[in-house]
Amino acid sequence: MDDTIYSYKKSYEQKKEKNPDIIYPQSEEKYFLNLPLKKDAKETITYLANQEIFEIFFLSAPSLKNPHCFTEKFLAIQRDFWDKLAQNLCIYSDKSAFNPLDFSDPKNPKKFDKLYLVDDYNEGKGQEFFRGEVLHFGEGNTYPDRKTIKRYFDDTYLKNNK
């Protein structure tokens, strides 16, 4: 979520520049709530969420320096997208532990053919052990922007399921 949808690093650097004595800018209350959306994030998430074959989850590592981390991220998603997506916010220190079936109705379980993790890191928080495909996102990575993410799903998944 941080630096895939919201501008975490840029905000972090601006806060450090403004107040060099602050050790953990992300520890400030409302830090996550006030992160700006990255370019094309809303358009891409909305496009993918509107495809019946996808279930969107926001998988994010916790900020151990900010006890408001989950609430602020939830409120940001709710504000910038909609309630259903906010309900799909999952905070995991180890992203490989994520299992979407944990969030499925046991009386009407969903089937997940394939899992994708769009992340700005491909290791360090369990990404290297994620049980699906990791799409390494960000400048200089395999998927440098949201347009390449959208194109990936259009080309490799959506075209085959129409």
Task: Describe the protein in words.
This protein has helices spanning 8-18, 41-49, 69-80, 83-87, 146-158; strands at residues 58-60, 89-91, 116-119, 133-136. With 162 residues, it is an alpha/beta fold. The relative contact order is 0.14. It has a two-stranded parallel sheet. A two-stranded parallel ribbon has the order 3-4. The protein has a single domain (8-161), classed as Rossmann fold, CATH 3.40.50.
| CATH third-level topology | Rossmann fold
By CATH, the architecture is named 3-Layer(aba) Sandwich
| Count of DSSP-assigned helices | 5
Overall geometry: globular
Major beta sheet summary: 2 strands, parallel
Which class in CATH terms?
Alpha Beta
Radius of gyration: 16 Å
| Percentage beta strand | 5-15%
**Total beta strand runs:** 4
Q: Order of strands across the widest beta sheet?
A: 1-2
Secondary structure: helix percent: 25-40%
Summarize model confidence as the mean pLDDT. Answer: 90
> Low-confidence runs (pLDDT<50, min 5 residues)?
none
Termini separation (Å)?
29 Å
Q: How many domain units?
A: 1
Write the CATH homologous superfamily.
Answer: HAD superfamily/HAD-like
Structural class: alpha/beta
